[in-house]
Amino acid sequence: MEKQAIISAQDVNFWYGDFHALRDISLDIEAHTVTAFIGPSGCGKSTFLRLLNRMNDLVDDSRLEGHILIEGEDIYARGVMVDELRKRVGMVFQKPNPFPKTIFENIAYGLRVNGVRDKAFIEQRVEESLKGAALWNEVKDKLRKSAFELSGGQQQRLCIARALAVRPAILLMDEPASALDPISTSKIEELIYELKSEYTIVIVTHNMQQAARVSDRTAFFYLGELVEYGETKKIFLGPEKAQTQNYITGRFG
Ligand SMILES: Nc1ncnc2c1ncn2[C@@H]1O[C@H](COP(=O)(O)OP(=O)(O)OP(=O)(O)O)[C@@H](O)[C@H]1O
Description:
Strand content: 25-35%
Largest sheet: 6 strands, mixed
Strand order of the largest sheet: 6-7-8-3-9-10
CATH architecture of the domain at 5-97 and 168-248: 3-Layer(aba) Sandwich
Bound molecules: adenosine-5'-triphosphate
CATH class of the domain at 5-97 and 168-248: Alpha Beta
Helix content: 25-40%
């Protein structure tokens, strides 16, 4: 029996002005899986990812049709609180973007803006989040130092820890390792693998090997359409569509 989807997109169409950026996208994502979105530049991967926590709300003249359900709730229904949604659906961006604050305060921030005042609780959550992002051992003696003193790879794990601090159910990652060196990249990949026992992860990546290594399922987008979606092994070893085959073998994109 199919497990209930934690993310369910139903006939999603999206426009930037007159530009029809996403066409009839339907896909279900199960909890505690890693899903990779792949496809050539400009095919709509990031647009679709950003719809999952309403990051496109502020884009002028944009329009959505269809439904996106998170844990069974239509996140575009009237009355949905976007702040609450983003607590459940966290996001990590391509370039590490720590706040100009200490390491500790970067993680504590999300708790403080949510009204948490209990110091012991905050300290414990900071530690747990840094451990969850495999960064604790490297920073435990310098929590009061500026986040900018960390390397790029450490900053990205800090941003992951920051996202984990409010205990989201879902973590969206938009090319989280593309600005990092190979060692930092493999740390992020290991981390993604570990995090899926507690979180559901959706990652946009241009790196096909990365998609093959970290994901359970892969969605191939092309020109705003979802061409093929399925088990990662199947997508890479025996895709059904010629377009998918051409892309993964590097014939275009
Ligand atoms: N704010 C915006 N206003 C207008 N058009 C946009 C906007 N953001 C993206 N687009 C257009 O929508 C299309 C999809 O963009 P999107 O960033 O989702 O693609 P992508 O597959 O993530 O690309 P990349 O891999 O290069 O990041 C592109 O043609 C892009 O130019």
